[in-house]
């Protein structure tokens, strides 16, 4: 069993495609790492494996080792360089240690990243089970599993395997299946589909750790004002109706898109503040803003303070068992 080194498992689910599960998974993983935890990401969206793209490691390949596959490192455990505010004083995140982050995806196994995966259900099921048994994870505090939309073969295979090899409560001998984070967007059509995922969790006794409402607004890159392009609040109402926690709303931030697509460090207009933190910076970055680790550049993103709050709430709800 490839999960023996994993302490906690969190699923990222949605009944709707295109709501940003992989984006949410990526940012939860980065935030957990920034909080000092050792993290793994397993991408079982077999027909649309996007996790390698999000972490900027599309060209990487997994290594075969005795007993299974060695996942790809996004970054190792290390201390990030100090960050300074515009007045030159070090802020609260300066020089802190981040946990190692690694991931596994079918995207690493494809001969070409544009190859189509045209598989019937049984082959998908076998691949999911192989990912759960043959990946040689290092010691992980948290394993995040990014899933495809809906409640299809991959989900059934995933849960059948996990329920046999994990514990529903914290255990010293088995990984703890902590539960699921549900992702939606504010529109009614998305809410309708995601409600089915919540019912799926109820029927399979998967605990819902919280609902995230993604794409709830658009952050203007010039003035940083957030406009609710796709409305807002539908996810919170749905969470309340199902009596599950609502973690919060996440706007679309073009700076995060640029970070993922081109590796450019986020920059914001003077005076931009999120949760009291000044995100505008006057210091010069090397070259065109592409220098540095992905996780280091993410600290400058407006979405990081939001996810830092989400993760702290999740860990508190889980009893902060680290």
UniProtKB/TrEMBL annotation:
<dbReference type="InterPro" id="IPR000808">
    <property type="entry name" value="Mrp-like_CS"/>
</dbReference>
<keyword id="KW-0004">4Fe-4S</keyword>
<keyword id="KW-0411">Iron-sulfur</keyword>
<dbReference type="GO" id="GO:0005524">
    <property type="term" value="F:ATP binding"/>
</dbReference>
<keyword id="KW-0067">ATP-binding</keyword>
<comment type="function">
    <text>Component of the cytosolic iron-sulfur (Fe/S) protein assembly (CIA) machinery. Required for maturation of extramitochondrial Fe-S proteins. The NBP35-CFD1 heterotetramer forms a Fe-S scaffold complex, mediating the de novo assembly of an Fe-S cluster and its transfer to target apoproteins.</text>
</comment>
<feature type="binding site">
    <location>
        <begin position="15"/>
        <end position="22"/>
    </location>
    <ligand>
        <name>ATP</name>
    </ligand>
</feature>
<dbReference type="GO" id="GO:0016787">
    <property type="term" value="F:hydrolase activity"/>
</dbReference>
<dbReference type="GO" id="GO:0046872">
    <property type="term" value="F:metal ion binding"/>
</dbReference>
<dbReference type="InterPro" id="IPR027417">
    <property type="entry name" value="P-loop_NTPase"/>
</dbReference>
<dbReference type="GO" id="GO:0051539">
    <property type="term" value="F:4 iron, 4 sulfur cluster binding"/>
</dbReference>
<feature type="binding site">
    <location>
        <position position="223"/>
    </location>
    <ligand>
        <name>[4Fe-4S] cluster</name>
    </ligand>
</feature>
<keyword id="KW-0963">Cytoplasm</keyword>
<dbReference type="GO" id="GO:0140663">
    <property type="term" value="F:ATP-dependent FeS chaperone activity"/>
</dbReference>
<dbReference type="InterPro" id="IPR028600">
    <property type="entry name" value="NUBP2/Cfd1_eukaryotes"/>
</dbReference>
<dbReference type="GO" id="GO:0005829">
    <property type="term" value="C:cytosol"/>
</dbReference>
<keyword id="KW-0479">Metal-binding</keyword>
<feature type="binding site">
    <location>
        <position position="220"/>
    </location>
    <ligand>
        <name>[4Fe-4S] cluster</name>
    </ligand>
</feature>
<comment type="similarity">
    <text>Belongs to the Mrp/NBP35 ATP-binding proteins family. NUBP2/CFD1 subfamily.</text>
</comment>
<keyword id="KW-0408">Iron</keyword>
<dbReference type="InterPro" id="IPR033756">
    <property type="entry name" value="YlxH/NBP35"/>
</dbReference>
<dbReference type="GO" id="GO:0016226">
    <property type="term" value="P:iron-sulfur cluster assembly"/>
</dbReference>
<protein>
    <submittedName>
        <fullName>P-loop containing nucleoside triphosphate hydrolase protein</fullName>
    </submittedName>
</protein>
<dbReference type="InterPro" id="IPR019591">
    <property type="entry name" value="Mrp/NBP35_ATP-bd"/>
</dbReference>
<dbReference type="Pfam" id="PF10609">
    <property type="entry name" value="ParA"/>
</dbReference>
<keyword id="KW-0378">Hydrolase</keyword>
<keyword id="KW-0547">Nucleotide-binding</keyword>
